[in-house]
Design a protein that fits this description.
Elements: H1 2-11, E1 17-18, H2 23-31, E2 35-36, H3 40-45, E3 49-52, H4 57-65, E4 79-82, H5 88-100, E5 104-107, E6 110-111, H6 114-119, E7 122-127, H7 130-141, E8 144-153, H8 157-186, H9 191-199, H10 206-216, H11 226-243, H12 248-264, H13 272-281
Parallel strand pairs: 1-2, 3-4, 4-5, 7-8
Antiparallel strand pairs: 6-7
Amino acid sequence: MGLPIARHLFDAGFAVTVFDIDPARRALATSHGVTVAADGRVVASGADVLITVLPGPPELRDAMLGADDVLATLRPGSLWLDLTSNDPRVAVDVAAVADAQGVSVAGAPMGGGVRNAEAATLRFYVGADADAFVRVEPILAALSAPGGIDHVGADITAGFTAKLLANLLWFGQAAAVTEALLLGKSLGLSPTALRATLSASAGGSVFISEHLDALLAGDYREEFGIDRVVEELDILSALAAAQGTPFETSESVVHLHRDALARFGSVGGELLGAKLLEERAGTTLRSTNGTVRSTNE
């Protein structure tokens, strides 16, 4: 995700300096004209805005507060913009250190995958106060489609929480739709025909209308790992327990994806929960003429 983001910001006229632990990614950035630094501390030390695009909360915490302590090199008056699908609790910890250094913060986790990053059609769920939002909006505008910036709230945790909840509903819809189609198929209804019927019904959803074709084509969406799915769902499970809010229905979604991780291992496939349901049913929903139209979330 970071490479196309860096390219688009460079092409939009921003002065961009990047670092990645993967030498191949650094080489690709250099080939596009983007300046590559020796490490993350060098990037942060010269940044007006430091953007982090990392796989998840453990990597984010390690980069910002771990041995490299990238956060410590940010100057007072600079801003940290996190595009990671972060844990709100981790964001709070990092933001507290940033605030003590006089560094502003904004969280803007991304909706969309690599194809969206390459096309600059990402969606952002932004948590930032008014001043920070004004600073990051031109950056996000260069990476998103019109209307793709959703300012959820003033606290840095707002966007992270909203993004996790959106993903919870998406994973839950994937499971519910898969179960419905498997039952329909067992009763003699074609999954492909049901897709059209359900899409136009009161039970229709974005998952059915825009993403179900991937599953019907046998595409379990390998761009996003099932371990990361479980990581996100486990965060929400812990938050619900801490808040004391009902989570029974959602907990079944969590358990399904934990089972999928145990069954398939830490591999790519955010629809592996659906694949596990197919295995349990002894059949698949795959059609011979399915087409993949979905984009990674």
